[in-house]
Amino acid sequence: MKNVLFILGLTALVACGTAKNAESVAGKSYGKVAVDESKAVTADQMMKQFDPTKGEQEFTVHGKLNQVCQAAGCWIKVENPGGEPIMIRFKDHFTIPTSTAAGTMAYFHGVAYMDTTSVEMLKHFAEDAKKSKEEIEKITEPKVTMMFVADGIKF
């Protein structure tokens, strides 16, 4: 009976801790720039407006997080209904809590541009995302994609 009560108590403690961590970013902002939600477009709209021939382009975007760097909270991926998730790195390496749950809605401000991500960096991102060794070893080619560097994020 003691074991059952201990397990139930531990389960409740973990569940409450998880709920608290998942909610901990609600209403908070990170980064040097205050994000103006009224200027936000969806990730899909940004992709339609983005012109890869024009260099850096400033956007305020809102979208649903589908992945957060589990090593330090230094990058996120945001759902993109029109294609691959959008990788968002944080300027000056500011971080958000690693416990930020997938599915969390966020507003972020920064610049989008085209760039080549090296094999080494792609593997680093995969390690941060806790991908398996097999998945990481499959990364053998650099990737040219739109990059986004955020200087502020608001939940």
Give the overall shape. globular
Q: Name the CATH superfamily classification.
A: Nucleic acid-binding proteins
- Tell me the Rg in angstroms: 18 Å
Spell the H/E element sequence. Answer: HEEHEEEEHHE
Second rung of CATH, namely the architecture: Beta Barrel
The amount of helix comes to 25-40%
CATH class (first level) name: Mainly Beta
Total number of domains: 1
Looking across the biggest beta sheet, what order are the strands in?
Answer: 3-4-5-7-6
* Main sheet makeup: 5 strands, mixed, barrel
Quick synopsis:
This protein is an alpha+beta fold. 28% of the residues lie in helices and 33% in strands.
Report on the structure:
With 155 residues, the protein is of the alpha+beta class. The chain has a single domain (28-154), classed as Nucleic acid-binding proteins (OB fold (Dihydrolipoamide Acetyltransferase, E2P)), CATH 2.40.50.140. Helices cover 28% and strands 33% of the residues. The protein has 4 helices and 7 strands, in the order αββαββββααβ. The chain has helices at 2-23, 43-49, 119-128, 133-137; strands spanning 29-31, 41-42, 57-68, 75-78, 86-90, 105-117, 143-154. Strands 3-4-5-7-6 form a 5-stranded mixed β-barrel. Helix 2 links the parallel strand 2 (41-42) and strand 3 (57-68). The termini are far apart. The relative contact order is 0.22.
